[in-house]
Amino acid sequence: MATNVLMPALSPTMEQGKLAKWLKKEGDAVRSGDILAEIETDKATMEVEAIDEGTLAKILVPEGSDNVAVNTPIAVIAADGEDASRLNVASDATQAAKGKDAAQKGAPPPPAVATAASVPATVHAAPPPEAPEVPEGAVMETMTVREALRDAMAEEMRRDENVFVLGEEVAEYQGAYKVTQGLLQEFGAKRVVDTPITEHGFAGLGVGAAMAGLRPIVEFMTFNFAMQAMDQIINSAAKTHYMSGGQMSCPIVFRGPNGAAARVAAQHSQDYAAWFSHVPGLKVVAPYTAADAKGLLKSAIRDPNPVIFLENEILYGHTFEVPKLDDFLVPIGKARIARKGEHVTIVSFGIGMTYALQAAAELEKEGLDAEVVDLRTIRPMDSATIIESVKKTGRCVTVEEGWPQSGVGAEIVARLMEEAFDYLDAPVMRVAGRDAPMPYAANLEKLALPSVAEVVAAAKAVCYR
Amino acid sequence: MAAASSTARAKAAPRKSSASAPKIPAFTKDEELAAYREMLLIRRFEEKAGQMYGMGLIGGFCHLYIGQEAIAVGMRMAAKEGDQTISSYRDHGHMLACGMDPKAVMAELTGRRGGASKGKGGSMHMFSRAKGFFGGHGIVGAQVPLGTGLAFADRYLGNDNVSFTYFGDGAANQGQVYESFNMAELWKLPVIYVVENNLYAMGTSVARSSALTDFSKRGQSFNIPGEQVDGMDVRAVKAAGDRAAQWCRAGNGPIILEMQTYRYRGHSMSDPAKYRPKEEVQKMREEHDPIEQVRARLIAGKQASEEELKEIDAEIRKVVAEAADFASHDQEPDPAELWTDVLL
């Protein structure tokens, strides 16, 4: 059967081009891969290759022709044994019609489908009443956030052989911040793996291991160094499940201290909560208490998705009550009411909670009863809990150490505007780190971070006090 | 470093490596025919993809594998069930060699619901857990740490699988490749790093981009052995693949195979490849074409007649035509698919 050779497009945007030169003439034998002709646009020249074999029966568009529309038949190839001279070009009706149709309208239209939905079906219904995370009467024990994190990893490693820890100084050194203390002794070098100082490489290696079915916990000595690994976290870990149509999964936890410590200056003091929370395909967790650190890390390790687990160096040494339970899990994606109140909602997470809670105590002295919401998870964000609180208080202040522009507070403000505007009695205010790199000098560093006084002032401002 | 390192290092004139390379074991008739069929499938599939791109049915980036078929096919012949394959965005050939359904691959190229990634990945992002194909990665070099991670999992799980990790001569200059080499050798991970050296990193020739153009030596500072292989000869590829896989399965750690190859087409569809002389392309096609080499051997050795090969050609054409037809008529993804598979 004869086939038409069509004018090809060099790019999705090309509509026409010049047929510059024929390299074969009528009657020539043509093999698959042979270059038939050259075409030109204002940008490039390209060769037209034969993909069928036979004889070049007829040239339909002579060389030198300008403005040849894409998909116009430019030649006819007769199959072996066909009499080229007797070929009626139009006889291949279907092909010709297709070509014509395509030339007029661009590419053959794909089968029609309904209009794409423009937004996901998210419903922020009031959260249903649920069982308390810590059962009544549970025995509590006191421990630091550091110990809680270590216990979470140890428990999950006992539970699942495929869980392992990978990172710099996690094994022999016992962790740069001693979070992995004792893990090497219990689980051995196969499962507690010291890496070279190569974040890009070992983050990617962890993602590959997760794709192959393991459950890596990748520790970054601090999240500042995860910048080196950003491509593997975003492009490989977060997107592969989607790009594979759901075939591949990446159950991995990236964890480590995030945000400012003390006097370590600009390159070691950045809060990445907003950065990571921008990315669909990631979950982003930032606990404040030891109980949440433990329960959320255990949930993160069991989660089938990539989870960014943001800790804080200053909080490592803080002590909290943690329920003494065999298997204490805190669900990802659920905020916690850290303090009940009536007059104003203060939303924060991680170390920001220290400012929020102290401010609430100050405000109480002045007769303002603040409700403090601990986000715990930045993505997916528990909008419902924030909105429920704002429905009650009508006022909201957000608190974070990170920068203000496109920050977590900015996201909360936008959601409240979109979904709770009618409940607001005052504009929402943000308290955030200063819009500058972190300075080293003690006085400047203090100025760069939020303060309790600012949170108090913001809360009073939105209450018009 | 034992067998693997002592082979090859074919010096200079890489295109004539057959002179200094180890003797290439002959293929059996069945192997020749299997290689012929597989390589022809890739060639015809890619030609069709190029044509469909020209018709506007395929969008975005589309990197064809034409000319490099012997690598995917020969290495696959050296692999066993359970081994993993991971590659760059020039990936259609690897998918077909791994046994993925041509219809699903072509329908992914056209962005239809029957595509290997439900139309959500496109040319550069396809996967098959069932066939051990781990993508399809669009960021130059990113698949190298990932492939090293696959090997890490193999070692962790104590199986005897090997990770076949492919990347190009361009990616070979990425820093993460060397971070991976270091860890792979340090931990003796079973990974074959296959450098598909087609001489051009997009439009920049190896000579203009690489201080050391012998990619088999790129592992030397980590003590990783390597060899240069005539990547246009499927028998040489399989033989090197066999040696490398054996090296890895024996617990010796990683190995590098530099496959000396050539892509006939531009880097992607929009690349007219004006940075190289036409004669260079023509010479490779005429003298080194991987498919023609097998065809000539089959005919000369009277292992197959012209008619038998024509029959195979016709079968392959039919498979490709069916794939193209399916990919042209399958529906676009349901709009609801926009929101699925973001999280598990």
Structural features, described:
The complex is a heterodimer of chains A (465) and B (344). Chain A is α/β, with parallel strands linked by helices. Chain A has three domains: 3-104, RNA polymerase II/Efflux pump adaptor protein, barrel-sandwich hybrid domain (OB fold (Dihydrolipoamide Acetyltransferase, E2P)); 140-323, Rossmann fold; 336-462, 3-Layer(aba) Sandwich (Rossmann fold). In chain A, 28% of the residues lie in helices and 22% in strands. In chain A, strands 11-10-12-13-15-14-20 form a seven-stranded mixed sheet, with helices on both faces. In chain A, α4 (199-211) packs parallel to α5. Chain A is elongated, with a radius of gyration of 31 Å. The relative contact order of chain A is 0.09. Mean pLDDT of chain A is 89; it is low at 89-116. Chain B is 43% helix and 9% strand. In chain B, a hairpin with a 2-residue loop joins β4 (200-201) and β5. Chain B starts with a helix and ends in a 15-residue tail after the last helix. Chain B has helices spanning 2-6, 29-54, 69-78, 92-97, 102-109, 143-157, 175-186, 206-209, 234-249, 278-288, 290-300, 306-329, and strands at residues 84-86, 163-168, 191-197, 200-201, 204-205, 226-230, 255-260. In chain B, α3 packs across α9 and α5 (102-109) crosses α12. By secondary structure, chain B is an alpha/beta fold. In chain B, strands 1-2-3-7-6 form a five-stranded parallel sheet, sandwiched between helices. In chain B, strands 4-5 form a two-stranded antiparallel ribbon. The chains are: A alpha/beta (465), B alpha/beta (344). Chains A and B meet through β5, α4, α5 and α6 of A and α2, α6 and α7 of B.
Summary of the model, kept short:
The complex is a heterodimer of chains A (465) and B (344). Chain A is an alpha/beta fold and 465 residues long. In chain A, 28% of the residues lie in helices and 22% in strands.
